[in-house]
Design brief:
- Helix content is about 45%, strand content about 15%.
- It contains 35 helices and 31 strands.
- The strands form six sheets. It has an eight-stranded mixed sheet with strand order 12-22-21-14-15-16-17-13. An eight-stranded parallel β-barrel has the order 24-25-26-27-28-29-30-31, surrounded by six helices. A five-stranded antiparallel sheet has the order 1-2-5-3-4.
- Helix 5 packs parallel to helix 7.
- The longest helix is centred in the C-terminal third of the chain and has 26 residues.
- The protein is elongated, with a radius of gyration of 32 Å.
- The model has no long low-confidence stretch (mean pLDDT about 90).
- The structure holds adenosine-5'-diphosphate and magnesium ion (2 copies).
Length: about 850
């Protein structure tokens, strides 16, 4: 049978999200619930993929099914598409599997042309409305389909409003709008050298193609990368009968949430505009009214609206984000979806739904976006500093969080300064999808225009960035390089602070304090811990980091990098001495001086970890990283060692490497200088034994040898470790147990993992290096070219952030299997950056690892992701 590319709303349901996209599937579901939905049909996501497979063409089969569906729709509506007296008008709406706000564009009032608009005016008896609909259509079609600059159209509208001396588009009459249309068509003609298309069928197919194309616009590609959305999903297209909120004072349009998306409070939350259409509310053309005002304006509509909103939340068992339109007193729903929310709101809603008996604890745990927890782990303003700060204004608390940074007025500047390591606050009149990268770069966003559902507010909440919106008191300077607020002038580069939870704006930079896990957050994390089997450790080199991680729930240290312990001002001269020594004896003397320091570091770490496992990795970086660089350092060292500057310089030259990443580092250092491994072993063992004796913790040191590619290499270093450890044990008369294991970070080690497991008691996948060496490009340089790879759809995401499951993952799976074959009880973990990335955590669970290890701030994310992995793989 031929493929079905087009589904009527009455033929689908919510389960068909992959095929119909989220919007289409929910329109179908609502149709099934007998709610007032303007009817229409959905062209499937598969048709989108087919469009790309056909080299950017709609195939005949798809086209004929669209035409068929249009005929059915004409019958349902009792109107003809393209009719000149009473035309059927439709909207063309994109809708991917998951909502991608602002990424793809909708066209309204499609089917109008120069003649039909006259018929439409006569038929409705409302010429003003007919012309308003047509001018909107021309504007949207030109922008979305033909990429004619939106601003040109807005300028015309502004000009005509100015000529008439009025403020709002609603003040323009039919004749004014006719003039608008004339000028709009002029813009179109000038930009494209052709007349505005008059054939509705052409309009329709052009619009469908534009939706398909928009799947691959740069904004969409960027959004997908930020949100782990695969490029081959495609978007569906919904063609839906128009209903009109712009027919006068008993018409309107709005958006609403069943619970507060910012705090999670159970209370309908929405905004609407009378006599408006489509995006007017979100775009902030006029200030919207709160939904409660609807009870006064149109009480019956309000009652019905509340009842449907309630039905929808009950039905989906989750907070809903809805769009509705009222046409001459009759209410229609145009969209519902599980609403985007801030992390605090997500936690509160999940807990309350459990308490209300609507969802299970497991459902609650699965529903929280693990990555979004990041928002909660970052600092809040310090109470005292906040009290002392100078508030200069207040506006809508659009997205919670504490943010302080330097002010920049455009997205590009914000991005540049963020990349240069500065904290930035993006201040805009209002934001638009083009600003997305700048918004990402910002600690906080402040806008002068727009409501709680404005672009800035919605996107900021989605990203977990603090946002204060709609601060009408801001006055921008002519040149756009400063603004005044509350009697103060803030210039580009000045510090301000934003509190996204209160909406307050402060002058200067306010100190912040670390976050803690409590309340709803703690409840969800406790449930997650009950569910998960994968352990979560942390990567920590200092007692402070380790303590922080334990507070966040870390069950041990998966990676303690010892090289960081040498950079201290007091120690670096000693390590330099060691490196620059030419004899074993001289090296040993220098190393012996380092033992007390190392031992103290490890003792501190063991103490804060209170008996939890700690994996200590032996010295890894290329030696030259420790070498003196400035003339001052070199002379000081020469003096200290009693050698000449020339001698130091010769040694520096000898240590120079062309490719240090692949040079004399990791276990290679221990192979050439076993004294280093000896010293580190002594420090580890003595620290463990002493803390064990002093505090009674049951410590089993885990010594990890990095960068191994061959069993004999590991065996060689292990021999040094074991000999030293046994000596220490004998000296202390201790029976302490310890483990020696390795990192799997060289592809050869993964290939020969069965042999390596004969020596290694544990494996820790060092996926930073493993990724680097599998791809053959370095982490530090990849940023320079990966961008082009995303643009050209060669790679979809940064393999250093999100584990490449296809390639690197294969090595991990293989090594895990081989390791277990040799040593069934081998302990397996991951300690690369990926250990805190939810999709990578799921992979680790499936690959049979025992634990993931990640930076302290990502520990809660990993805990939740581990629980979600267990639930998803039941
Ligand atoms: P987005 O995904 O960006 O929200 P939508 O497809 O939901 O885009 O449409 C944008 C706006 O147009 C929404 O406010 C929606 O309610 C409105 N709209 C879409 N289709 C229709 C229609 N058939 N009749 C009236 N308004 C519509
Ligand atoms: Mg919408
Ligand atoms: Mg490494």
């Amino acid at each position: 049978m031929a493929t079905k590319w087009v589904y009527k709303f009455s033929e689908g349901n919510a389960e068909m999200r992959n095929l119909l996209g989220g919007k289409g599937a929910n329109l179908a579901e609502m149709t099934g619930l007998n709610l007032p939905i303007p009817q229409g049909f959905t062209v499937t996501t598969e048709a989108c993929t087919n469009y790309y497979d056909c080299g950017g063409k709609i195939s005949d089969e798809v086209a004929s099914q669209v035409i068929e569906a249009m005929k059915d729709l004409e019958e349902i509506q009792g109107k003809k598409f393209g009719d000149l007296e009473d035309p059927l008008l439709v909207s063309v709406r994109s809708g991917a599997r998951v909502s991608m706000p602002g990424m793809m564009d909708t066209i309204l009032n499609l089917g109008l042309n120069d003649e039909a608009v006259e018929g439409f005016a006569k038929k409705t008896g409302n010429p003003r409305f007919a012309y308003d609909s047509y001018r909107r259509f021309i504007q949207m079609f030109s922008d979305v389909v033909k990429e004619v600059d939106k601003a040109k159209f807005e300028d015309v509208l502004d000009d005509i409003k100015a000529e008439k001396g009025v403020k709002f588009d609603t003040d323009l009459d039919a004749d004014d709008l006719k003039e608008v249309i004339k000028r709009y068509k002029g813009i179109y003609r000038k930009a494209l050298n052709e007349e505005f298309p008059q054939d509705p069928k052409d309009q329709l197919f052009e619009a469908i193609k534009a939706v398909f194309r928009s799947w691959d616009n740069p904004r969409a590609i960027y959004y997908r990368r930020m949100n782990d959305i695969p490029g081959d999903w495609g978007t569906a297209v919904n063609v839906q009968t128009m209903v009109f909120g712009n027919m006068g004072d008993t018409s309107g349009t709005g958006v609403a949430f069943t619970r507060n998306p910012s705090t999670g409070e159970k209370q309908i939350y929405g905004e609407y505009l009378i006599n408006a259409q489509g995006e007017d509310v979100v775009a902030g053309v006029r200030t919207p009214q709160p939904i409660t005002k609807l009870a006064e304006d149109l009480p019956e509509c309000y009652e019905q609206f509340m009842s449907i909103a309630h039905t929808l939340e009950e039905h989906y068992r989750d907070m809903q984000d809805m769009e509705f339109t009222i046409q001459e007193g009759k209410l229609y729903f145009l969209q519902t979806r599980n609403g985007k929310r801030t992390a605090p709101a997500a936690l509160r809603i999940a807990c309350e739904l459990v308490d209300e008996g609507k969802i299970t604890k497991e459902e609650a745990v699965s529903r929280i976006d693990a990555k979004a927890l990041d928002q909660l782990l970052h600092p809040n303003f310090d109470e005292a500093a906040l009290k002392a700060a100078l508030p200069i204004g207040e506006a809508l608390p659009a997205s919670p969080g504490a943010a302080a940074g330097k002010v920049y007025f455009d997205a590009e500047m914000a991005k540049l300064h963020h990349e240069a390591g500065l904290k930035v606050i993006l201040v805009r009149l209002e934001t638009s999808p083009e600003d997305i990268e700048g918004m990402h770069a910002a600690e906080g966003i402040l806008t002068a225009r727009g409501g709680m559902t404005s672009h800035a507010a919605v996107v900021a909440r989605g990203m977990g960035t603090a946002c204060v919106a709609g601060c009408g008191d801001i006055k921008f300077a002519e040149d756009g390089k400063s603004f005044t607020l509350g009697g103060k002038t803030v210039k580009e580069g000045d510090y301000i602070s934003l509190d996204g939870s209160t909406g307050k704006i402060y002058l200067g930079e306010i100190r912040t304090v670390p976050a803690s896990i409590s309340g709803n957050f703690d409840r969800i994390m406790t449930w997650a811990d009950e569910i998960r089997t994968l352990q979560v450790r942390t990567n920590a080199d200092t007692p402070a980091d380790a303590l922080n991680a334990v507070k966040f729930g870390a069950q041990g240290i998966g990676l303690c990098r010892t090289e960081h312990m040498f950079f201290d001002a007091e120690r670096i001269p000693k390590i330099r001495r060691m490196i620059l020594s030419t004899t074993k004896e001289a090296r040993e003397i220098a190393l012996n001086q380092l033992i007390p320091y190392q031992k103290k570091d490890f003792k501190d770490l063991y103490e804060v970890m209170e008996g939890r496992p700690v994996t200590i990795r032996f010295l890894d970086p290329p030696l030259h990283e420790f070498l003196p660089n400035t003339m001052e350092e070199i002379t000081a060292l020469a003096k200290d060692m009693g050698v000449t500057v020339e001698e130091i310089n010769m040694r520096r030259a000898a240590l120079h490497e062309f490719n240090p990443m692949m040079g004399h580092r990791g276990c290679r250092l221990a192979v050439t200088y076993p004294e280093i491994a000896k010293m580190q072993t002594r420090a580890v063992m003595e620290a463990a034994i002493e803390v064990k004796q002093e505090k009674g913790y049951d410590i089993v040191p885990e010594i990890m040898i990095p960068l191994v590619g061959e069993k004999k290499e590991l065996a060689y270093v292990k021999e040094v470790v074991v000999q030293t450890a046994e000596k220490v044990k004998a000296y202390y008369e201790s029976d302490i147990k310890y483990k020696v294991g390795t990192m799997i970070e060289i592809p050869r080690a993964a290939l020969l993992a069965d042999e390596i497991a004969e020596e290694a008691e544990f494996f820790s996948f060092g996926t930073n290096d493993l990724t680097q060496m599998t791809f053959g490009f370095s982490r530090d340089d990849a940023g320079k070219f990966l961008e082009s790879y995303y643009e050209n759809k060669i790679y979809e995401s940064d393999p250093f952030a999100k584990l490449d499951q296809k390639g690197v993952g294969q090595l991990i799976e293989m090594a895990a299997k081989k390791g277990k074959a040799t040593r069934p009880d081998i302990h397996l973990g991951i300690c690369g950056e990926h250990g805190g990335d939810p999709s990578s955590v799921e992979f680790c669970y499936r690959a049979g690892l025992d634990y993931v290890s990640c930076s302290p701030f990502r520990v809660p994310i990993a805990r939740l992701a581990a629980a979600q992995a267990a639930i998803a793989n039941r």
